[in-house]
Inverse folding.
């Protein structure tokens, strides 16, 4: 399902021409519906994460922060009907998720020492490096569009700035590091953190 959303996001941003008119103001029925779907999706994601954190006594502040920022993004995109270009472009950072899911599944199936694991993990690490470059492109686009970007409602511009700063300087580097470590030491972080709590 996420692959389909990534494809649609790519279509809207890179092949659709409506949002190119003005990145800060332009919207379309298609982009608004897409933002509504993503808002619902991140409600589901955060609710699921809260449930599993409660059930397994785990807590990932990075994932919660990521979901809350995304919820804010798509809530603001639907309410103000502005900046769809930036919000959908930011969503394309989720390209790492399919490989992350495969990584988790391979661990659960005890296949973390297979070639499939190594190939998937190698792809995932490279996708995170791509994310860093993509985020820099996002910063460049906001700078290039500054004359119209600064006319956005304050909640939108603040959320975009805070979000891309946190993602660029904390989340993406952190996850790149963690996935690189996991390549050499293939363990499930959730099980690790649960076992650490039991030892305490």
């Amino acid at each position: 399902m996420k692959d389909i959303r990534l494809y649609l996001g790519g279509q809207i941003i890179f092949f659709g021409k409506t949002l190119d008119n003005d990145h800060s103001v332009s919207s379309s029925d298609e982009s608004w519906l897409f933002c509504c779907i993503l808002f619902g999706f991140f409600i589901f994601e955060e609710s699921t994460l809260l449930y599993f954190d409660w059930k397994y006594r785990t807590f990932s502040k990075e994932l919660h922060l990521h979901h809350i920022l995304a919820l804010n993004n798509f809530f603001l995109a639907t309410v103000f009907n502005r900046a769809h270009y930036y919000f959908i472009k930011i969503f394309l950072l989720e390209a790492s998720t399919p490989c992350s899911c495969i990584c988790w599944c391979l661990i659960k199936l005890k296949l973390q020492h297979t070639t499939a694991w190594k190939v998937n993990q190698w792809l995932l690490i490279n996708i995170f490096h791509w994310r860093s470059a993509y985020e820099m492109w996002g910063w460049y686009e906001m700078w290039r569009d500054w004359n119209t970007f600064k006319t956005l409602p304050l909640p939108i511009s603040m959320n975009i700035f805070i979000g891309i700063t946190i993602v660029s300087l904390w989340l993406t580097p952190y996850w790149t590091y963690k996935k690189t470590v996991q390549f050499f030491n293939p363990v499930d972080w959730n099980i690790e953190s649960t076992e650490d709590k039991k030892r305490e």
Q: What stands out?
A: Residues 25 and 120 are 38 Å apart (CA to CA). The chain has a mean pLDDT of 86. The two ends are 39 Å apart (CA to CA). Residues 2-17+27-199 form one domain.
